[in-house]
Design a protein that fits this description.
- This protein has 340 residues and is of the alpha/beta class.
- It folds into two domains: 157 residues, 2-Layer Sandwich (Nucleotidyltransferase, domain 5), CATH 3.30.420.40; 170 residues, ATPase, nucleotide binding domain (Nucleotidyltransferase, domain 5, 2-Layer Sandwich).
- Helices cover 42% and strands 19% of the residues.
- It contains nine helices and ten strands.
- The strands form two sheets. Strands 3-2-1-4-5 form a five-stranded mixed sheet, sandwiched between helices. A five-stranded mixed sheet has the order 8-7-6-9-10.
- A hairpin with a 4-residue loop joins β1 and β2.
- The longest helix has 32 residues.
- It is globular.
- The structure holds 5'-O-[(R)-(carboxyoxy)(hydroxy)phosphoryl]adenosine.
- 5'-O-[(R)-(carboxyoxy)(hydroxy)phosphoryl]adenosine (KG4) binds next to α4 and α5.
């Protein structure tokens, strides 16, 4: 018997649905929400309304592209949290309704676990390299910056995490402040490639253990730009590539320093990354280089699996399904990780 899992993701501003069969990806459909661009950040109420518009066509397309019919689905996995409550409510309610209509089990998934397991999405015509357990995952997104030790598909421990802003938030807020657009990560990444990373230096935090902090570097950049602009209103325009390169280099160094520390402390040499910021070209190069230098086996997720997507929810749901876990229809979404 084949296990066909439909995954549904709606935790933030992307509506996504995916189908996997015995761990192999059949379809992964994503509808991004352009409505937030005008505001320079995600507006929760607009996000949930856009999810309501998108969810039916996105799920239908995922089923069509997979070449299956709804009755072929074995179980429905959905993101229960963490995320924006209104957004989560749309995906959770839809998943429940479909589970009742098709008389199939419902499986809740922790969004972060999806990112952590993104390397296990198997694809036809692909090498499907997968990390061995235990491995370390640098989970970096708009809402999280964590170093996670993963002992099995469903057992993980957070070794360190940000005590203030997430690294994606630092990219986004600084980009917005510098007038470069939203989301900030891809813009800064693109400009940084054209700049000199050694021209400008920004403050680095001194946080004990494996925890991170990004609000200091953010403030350091914002004050620097403000002071320079007071003296020369064109400063930003003339120097944005070098500013972005220096800022990005600082964020990468902060991330890598703690990851190296975690690898030394645990003795683990299998290392992966996940979350939207793992699309960053500088960070990907830095992790690859560090891996070569230290003899780590590094696994980078494909770009399409770095940002929010339902394929990672489907694969995480598949592991829960195999372990016999089922979620009751009375389930409610949970916006905070601690509630899951
Ligand atoms: O995982 P994700 O899609 O969802 C949330 O956590 O909301 O991550 C989104 C984050 C945003 O902060 C975005 O700026 C960042 O990922 N991001 C990047 C890049 N692409 C997306 N950050 C740095 N470099 C990139 N190329």
């Amino acid at each position: 018997m084949e296990d066909i899992i439909l995954g549904i993701e709606s935790s933030c501003d992307d509506t996504s649905a995916a189908v996997i069969r015995d761990g192999y990806l059949l379809s992964n459909v994503l509808a991004s929400q352009d409505v937030h661009k005008a505001y320079g950040g995600v507006i929760p109420e607009l996000a949930s309304r856009a999810h309501q518009l998108n969810i039916v066509p996105v799920v239908s397309q995922a089923i069509d592209r997979a070449g299956i019919s709804p009755s072929d689905i074995t179980a429905i996995a959905f993101t229960r949290g963490p995320g924006l409550l209104g957004s989560l409510l749309v995906g959770t309610s839809f998943a429940k309704g479909l589970a009742v209509a098709l008389d199939r089990p419902l499986i809740e998934v922790n969004h972060l676990q999806g990112h952590i397991l993104a390397n296990f999405i198997k694809q036809y015509d692909s090498e499907n390299r997968q990390p061995a357990f235990p491995y370390l995952c640098l989970l970096v997104s708009g809402g999280n910056s964590q170093i996670v030790r993963v002992d099995s598909p469903l057992e993980f421990e957070i070794l360190g995490q940000t005590i203030d802003d997430a690294v994606g938030e630092a990219f986004d807020k600084c980009s917005k402040m510098m007038g470069l657009g939203y989301p900030g990560g891809p813009v800064v990444d693109r400009l940084a490639k054209q700049g000199d990373p050694d021209r400008f230096h920004f403050a680095k935090p001194h946080v004990p253990g494996l925890d991170y902090s990004f609000s200091g570097v953010k403030t350091s950049l914002l004050y620097f730009v403000r002071d320079q602009m007071a003296a020369d209103p064109d400063f930003m325009d003339k120097n944005k590539e070098d500013i972005c390169a220096g800022f990005q280099r600082t964020l990468i160094e902060i991330l890598m320093d703690k990851l190296v520390k975690a690898a030394k402390q645990t003795g683990i040499r299998e290392v992966t990354m996940g979350g939207g910021v793992s699309a960053n070209s500088g960070l990907r190069n830095a992790l690859t280089a560090e891996g070569k230098k230290r003899g780590w086996n590094v696994y980078l997720p494909e770009f399409k699996f770095t940002t929010d997507n339902a394929a990672m929810i489907a694969i995480a749901g598949y592991f829960h399904y195999l372990r016999g876990e089922r979620t009751p229809l009375s389930v409610a979404p949970a916006s905070r990780a601690a509630e899951l």
